[in-house]
Input
Amino acid sequence: MNRNLTALTRRHFFQSAGFGIGGLALSSLTGSAAPRTHHPAKAKRVIFLFMAGAPSQLDMFDYKPKLNQFDGQPVPEEVVKGERFAFIQGTPRLLGSPHAFARYGQSGQEMSAILPHLAKVADDIAIIRSVSTTQFNHAPAQIFMNSGHQIPGRPSLGSWLTYGLGSENADLPGFVVLLSG
Output
């Protein structure tokens, strides 16, 4: 097909564009169901709470006995060497948790004594302790925690889960983000 671009009419343009828009609409209708996986899912729902402003994870879920052992001592030089800290002046010192920790449930989840009610369901929750970043400022670290990248604009965990698992209801979102502040 060899067409002269000057012969392209407005009618022809809208006719061709209509096929493209129709194809996009059709793809959104056919792609709404969750894809079949090779094994049945064990979890029916996931509630992921990321609550900025709570006590530190070191005071609730991530017991560091060595940090408590060296509480109040100067931070080792190799930790702070070459780093710029906006809010630390003088000699930075290590700070251990002021709270007692114990093991709970059959799984032996280690939790702080400040979480007595959560400790009762220790075997029913998953505590992920493998996330780490070199970022020490809160805002980029929070972006990293929720998207896996320190640069804003990447899809969040909820986006990926909805993309992979689909939504159970076409009229409601698969996940919701509520901002405060």
